[in-house]
Specification:
The chain is mainly α. The chain is built from four helices and no strands. Helix 3 crosses helix 4. It is globular and about 35 Å long.
């Protein structure tokens, strides 16, 4: 099993309503991409992959997703 295969169940390990929501997974991808861009612009090292980013920032990402959803469903 490769390291990536070991990391794939990240969302599934955290069995919440978020893990089943394709909008959440898309949101996490967008947040990761934005973080990579910001880090490049500031000369910082990027996270190795989306899973590393999510593990380190999971509460922040969830909070931001909830804010976005509250605004959208307003």
């Amino acid at each position: 099993m490769t390291a990536l295969q070991e990391q794939l169940p990240l969302f599934e390990k955290e069995q919440t309503h978020y893990t089943q929501d394709p909008n959440f997974k898309h949101f996490v991808r967008n947040m990761f991409n934005e973080n990579c861009k910001e880090r490049r612009e500031h000369g910082q090292r990027e996270y190795k992959n989306i899973f590393s980013y999510f593990r380190k920032n999971h509460q922040f990402v969830i909070d931001e997703f909830n804010k976005k959803e509250a605004t959208r469903n307003g």
